[in-house]
Amino acid sequence: MQFLKSLLVLSSLSASIYASPFARRNTTEKRYAILDNDWSTAGFIPFLLAVDAGINVLGITSSTANTWQKQCAYHALATLEIGNLSCIPVYYGSTYPLINTYERFQAWEAVHGVLPWQGVFAPYNATAEALGSDPTADSSDPNRISAEAFLEGYPNTTAVTGKSAAQFMIEQVRKYPGQVSIYAAGALTNVALAVRLDEDFASLARELVIMGGYVDVNMNQATGTVNQADINSDINLMIDPEATKIALTADFPNIVVAGNVANQVISTQEFLDEIYEVKNPYSKLMYEYYGTIFPFWDETAMAILIDPSIATNTSTVYLDVDVAYASPSYGNIHVYQSALMPPNIRNVTYVNKIDTARFKAMIKHAVQYPKSCADL
Ligand SMILES: *[C@@H]1O[C@H](CO)[C@@H](O)[C@H](O)[C@H]1NC(C)=O
Ligand SMILES: *[C@@H]1O[C@H](CO)[C@@H](O)[C@H](O)[C@H]1NC(C)=O
Ligand SMILES: *[C@@H]1O[C@H](CO)[C@@H](O)[C@H](O)[C@H]1NC(C)=O
Ligand SMILES: *[C@@H]1O[C@H](CO)[C@@H](O)[C@H](O)[C@H]1NC(C)=O
Ligand SMILES: *[C@@H]1O[C@H](CO)[C@@H](O)[C@H](O)[C@H]1NC(C)=O
Ligand SMILES: *[C@@H]1O[C@H](CO)[C@@H](O)[C@H](O)[C@H]1NC(C)=O
């Protein structure tokens, strides 16, 4: 993207002019990232954004959140394949959350009320699956692949076996200390496992950037439409509350949270039409399947990872995660100022606002002119 390129040139001339609001940034330095997500048919924009910005995507890892991780890994493989990006390896993540289960989640809902979107913990629905939805519940076989959901094409490539997502993350931060951004836009299970497997993992990464972490949205959940309640609930974090707590209290040099801000830009037909003015397999999939109901959640987190200066308003707050199963906020975050915080938590950069026009320009360029392995 043109403005990004000129920004890079300028920053290398004078790092201080474009000093980021929340990270020591050296834009001439090679940047690496591992992208962990619950990948889907139209969920490829984050990796297109990353490669478009010149970030070396070391690997893609799959997370159980909207559906089981294996189904997500297959979506990652398929959506890489359609754009000749299969040189980026895909690693399987943890199939199960640390302790949460379908039955446990359903019991929690019976007490505290249902979520409009339950992700992988929605009851099994054979009709929905036959119509192309990714599988849910049915924990008797979480490795079952539902082929009908591969609207992008069924993958002809395979994920790496013999090394878990968490092991891969650890290996790579040790190989490139201080340079690997960990991006997590699904549940935080894999990140938590890496944190617990290797006590130096978090501090050896460059940062952790997540999608999720809404604050002060309860009134929106009550007074708006069900869709409004949906986009203000925190399913990514709630699928695995204990992992969320482990990941968000670990000693990453920086943790960046794209929570409320991830709802700032909602997909519109006008924008989809504009993107599809340039025809390629990605613009077609986005045009056909992204829809106009949801915000650009995961894309927002990636844009902030790529260029922190896109954030126009941020707060430094101390963050904790509610891990009390009996709480209606189980799996949600709570923020504090330092004078009042409990022990064993840390500060995070909570992004409040981004530059919408720049963000949309980034998406547009990445999807219309996607990089392929030939460019990497
Ligand atoms: C930025 O990174 C490059 C490559 O790692 C290094 O050569 C350069 O000294 C760094 N600049 C600053 C200001 O840290
Ligand atoms: C895999 O190959 C088959 C047969 O050529 C093709 O129909 C399908 O679209 C391919 N999958 C992807 C994700 O490109
Ligand atoms: C992928 O590579 C094939 C063979 O080189 C080429 O025909 C096709 O246009 C490429 N697709 C994309 C989306 O770059
Ligand atoms: C199952 O999915 C179908 C198709 O999406 C839907 O019409 C139906 O209401 C779902 N059933 C339940 C019990 O949610
Ligand atoms: C930044 O965002 C916070 C939280 O939404 C808000 O309270 C504050 O007024 C904003 N600051 C500016 C300068 O807009
Ligand atoms: C966040 O905490 C770290 C480690 O305690 C500290 O070095 C840093 O200055 C804090 N950042 C802000 C903005 O308070």
Distinct compounds present: 2-acetamido-2-deoxy-beta-D-glucopyranose
- Quaternary structure type: single chain
Instruction: Trace the largest sheet across and list its strands.
Output: 3-2-1-4-5-6-9-7-8
Strand content: 5-15%
Q: What is the helix/strand order?
A: HEHEHEHHHEHHEHHHHEHHHEEEH
Alpha plus pi helix count: 16
CATH homologous superfamily classification: Ribonucleoside hydrolase-like
Give the overall shape.
globular
The low-confidence parts are 1-20
**C-alpha termini separation:** 15 Å
CATH architectural grouping: Alpha-Beta Complex
Helix content: 25-40%
Q: What is Rg? A: 19 Å
CATH topology: Inosine-uridine Nucleoside N-ribohydrolase, Chain A
Number of extended strands: 9
How is the main sheet built?
Answer: 9 strands, mixed
> In terms of structural class, how would the helical and strand content be classed?
alpha/beta
CATH class: Alpha Beta
Give the mean pLDDT: 93
Quick tags:
about 375 residues; binds 2-acetamido-2-deoxy-beta-D-glucopyranose; globular; Inosine-uridine Nucleoside N-ribohydrolase, Chain A; 9-stranded mixed sheet; alpha/beta
3D architecture notes:
GO terms for molecular function: purine nucleosidase activity. One of its GO terms (biological process) is purine nucleoside catabolic process. This is Related to inosine-uridine preferring nucleoside hydrolase. Residues 1-19 form the signal peptide. Keywords: Glycosidase, Hydrolase, Signal. The chain has a single domain (29-375), classed as Alpha-Beta Complex (Inosine-uridine Nucleoside N-ribohydrolase, Chain A), CATH 3.90.245. Helix 2 (45-52) packs across helix 16 (356-368), helix 6 (165-175) packs across helix 7 (189-197) and helix 7 packs across helix 12 (241-248). The two termini are 15 Å apart. By secondary structure, it is an alpha/beta fold. The radius of gyration is 19 Å and the shape is globular. The model is unreliable at 1-20 (pLDDT under 50). It has 16 helices and nine strands. Helices cover 36% and strands 14% of the residues. It has helices at 2-13, 45-52, 69-81, 102-112, 126-130, 165-175, 189-197, 201-204, 218-223, 226-231, 235-239, 241-248, 269-275, 281-289, 297-306, 356-368; strands at residues 32-37, 56-62, 90-91, 180-184, 207-211, 255-258, 311-321, 333-336, 346-354. The chain has a nine-stranded mixed β-sheet, with helices on both faces. The site of one 2-acetamido-2-deoxy-beta-D-glucopyranose (NAG) has 2 residues, from loops.
